[in-house]
Write a structure and sequence with these properties.
single chain; alpha/beta; six-stranded mixed sheet; 9 helices; 17 strands
Amino acid sequence: MKLPAFMEMYQQLIAAPSISALEESLNMSNQSVIQLLAQWCETLGFTVEVTELEHAKGKYNLIARRGSGDGGLMLAGHTDTVPFDDSRWQFDPFKLSEQDNKLYGLGSIDMKGFFAFVLNAISELDELQQNAPIMILATADEETTMAGAQEIAKHPSLKPARCIIGEPTDMVPVFTHKGHMTTAIRIVGRSGHSSDPERGLNAIEIMHQVIANLLKLREELKNKYSTPHFAIPYPTLNLGHIHGGDNANRICGCCELHIDMRPLPGLSIKELQAMLTAAMAPINTHYPNSVSVIDMHEPIPAFTGSTDSALVKMAERLSGQQAIAVNYCTEAPFLQQLGCETIVMGPGSINQAHQPNEFLAMEKIQPSQDIIKQLIRESCFAYTSCIK
């Protein structure tokens, strides 16, 4: 492993801020990360295509390709990170810091660091032995809307046979995961003076009924749907954020609740949305037009893979780990639409994702690099050398 080159790439990636957030004041372009990747890919003989997202100006996708024709392997990751709370970080989030055999930095495992692994692995393989295309995909806005991956899913000429999404799984292959919906339940009542309750319509009181119905729906989901592959085998519904009212002596005219729902494979987004709407229907009947159900971003469907695919079998053999199902969500259901066998598998632990002092354990670097290099070798090169 070319450690100095690897570390230099890692440092530059962490030093390039690329936060994506629904709150505009926190939202950033990912262009600096894309420019770094484009430069490094071109040095390795890749043809690079950079496109600005259609509905998110200042956000970019990159597709780098070496080798002609369809098939081959696509190594995919997102270039954005979540926002951070500076007061909870012991280190500078935009400086790669080494301490206690750990590399700290925002995006160190989720997931800008993955690109350093991939590029280093490719640099150590003999290009003259390559016999199938290698593609590197870097997307925008995975942490918010997944708009980058959704645009890539419509690409007219991107047809890899296999795709590995390098989210942090400790190099354990993931063959399926739940979906994700973030929904706002908005109650519009009628404000007024608290001394005369009958002249108003208290949105907080209506929200009390909404929450009761949501908790019933949560139990229904838990009892009706189950998939044993998952540690949490049922769809989840979380009451995440609520706000309403402005003063104790005023009847609340508006109240809003944000919920998170995680559907299982086989439970469609449309079906789940219909169940949510049905749960709100009796309240809307009693208080006409008071309850609105609003998607806060395009819902993400579950990712449904197979443990029998050739890519999963290869990943299990090289990692020594059985493929698993996970409760979190990735770009996999969109990239899978390209027609490729798809897994999620990358360095670092998901337990560090979205956490202060995000880090990569240094003892995991070489074993992770060996597996990544062998995955590329066996997919795209004329010779093999199995890991023992």
